[in-house]
Amino acid sequence: MQCCGVYPDNFTYSFLLKACNSLSLVQMVHAHVEKLGFYGDIFVPNALIDSYCKFGCVGIRAGMKLFMVMEERDVVSWNSMIGGLVKNGELDDACKLFDEMPKRDMVSWNTMLDGYAKAGEMNKAFGLFERMPERNVISWSTMVWGYSKAGDMAMARMLFDKCPMKNLIIWTTIISGYAEKGIVKEATVLYDKMEEVGLKPDDGFLISILAACAESGMLGLGKRIHASIRRCRFRCSTKVLNAFIDMYAKCGCLDAAFGVFSGMSRRDLVSWNSMIHGLGIHGHGEKALKLFSRMVHEGFEPDKYTFIGLLCACTHAGLINEGRNYFYAMEKVYGIVPQVEHYGCMIDLLGRGGLLEEAFGLLRNMPMEPNVVVLGTLLGACRMHNDVDLAKAVCEHLFKLAPSDPGNFSLMSNIYAQAGDWVNVANIRKQMKSTGGQKPSGASSIEVEEEVHEFTVFDQSHPKSNDIYEMIDRLVQDLRQVGYVPKAYI
User: PPR repeat boundaries (predicted)?
Assistant: First the structure.
C-alpha cells in the first residue's frame, strides 16, 4: 500500500494492530504512528494500549508509559489499561487506576469485578458489587461464577436467584458450578427449570455443562442432556459432539462414546483424539491403535495430543514395543517433536513394564529438564518394582524440584518400608516433620442414584459408614482367603 503511494489513516492502524502477534510488531506500528503523527486521534493510542496489554509484563509497562503521556484520555483509554493490568494479575495497580478514573462505565466496574473473581478474592468482589451504581447480567454472572469456583454454592445460588435478568450465560454458570461439585440433584433440577422457562441450550452451554460432567463423573446429567437435545432435535455441531464423546469416555461409557463418534457426519482431529484417548485410558489399547490406523487412512494428520493418547493407550494395555515404535515415529515419520508430556508417558510405560533402567536412561537423555510429574511417575514405578537404589537416584532430582512436597516423602518411605529398611523409613519421617509437610488424604467419588458421594481414608461422614466398613472388612477377608496380602503404607 505504501509502495503504491497510498497513505494510512487512523483506521489503518487498528487493523494492523489486530494482526500483530508479537510485541516487536506492535512496537514497529507504534514507531510508525509517532513518525506520521496520528496521536491526535485518541482512537489510535487506545488501540496501541489494548495491543500492548496482550503481551505480559513488558507490554503492560509499554502500555502504561503510553497511557501516562497521553494528553487526552477517554473512558476507553482507562478501561483498556485497567483491563490489561487485571489480565496480568496486577490487581492493586488496576484498583489504583480504577479509583483515579474521572468517569466509570459498566465495562470499568465489570472488569474489576472479573479480576477479583478470577483471583478468588470474593470479599473484595462482593464489596465492589455492592458499590456498583447499576448492574447488568455480566455483573451477576461474574459473581455467581466466582462463588462457584470458590466452592461457595450457597452464595452462588443466592445471587443467581436474586438476579433480575437471567440469560443463558448465568444459567450455564450456575448449572456448571453444581455439576463440577458433583451436586447432581440441584444441577438436574435447574436444567429442568431452564427448559421450563423456554431457554434453549446453545453450543456454549452444552460444551460447558458436558465438560463439568466429565470432570466430576456426573454421567446421569450428561445422559439427561443428551436425551433432551435428541428430543428437541437440536442440531449438534462437531464441537458439541466432541464434548459428548469426551464426557462419555471419561465416565467409562465407551459404547455410548463410540456411538456418538460413529454417528458423526463430520469429524475433526479432536473427535479422533478424544475417542483414542478414551479407549486408551480404559485399557482398550489395541482398539485405540486400530482407530489411529483408521484415522491416518482417512487422511487426518496426527498432532501431539494424538500421540499422548496413543502412548497412554500403550501404557494402560502394557504394549511396550508398540509404545516405543510410536514414540520414535513421532518426529521421524510425522515431524512432531516429543514434548515433556510424551517423555512422561513413555517413562511411565517403561516403568510399569519393569524396564526401569531404560526408563531412567530416557529420563537422563531428555532434551528438556524433567518436571515433577515425570520424576514422580518413575518413582512410582520404582515402588511398584521395589528398586530402592534407582528410587534414591530419582529422589535426588525430585527433592531439588519439590523439596517440601509430602507426597514424594511418603512414596519414598513406602519404598523403604517395602524393602524392610526401617532406619530410612524413620529418617524420611523426620524429614517430613522438619519440612512441615503433611500428605493430604486422597479422595474417591462414586455416583449412586444421581448423587455423587466423595470419601477419604477413614471417612466417617457418610450416614451408613458403619455398614460400608463392615462390607470392606468382609471383602478383605474374602481376598485373604484367595491369597491376597495387603501392603501397609504411611
Answer: 74-108, 109-139, 167-201, 268-302
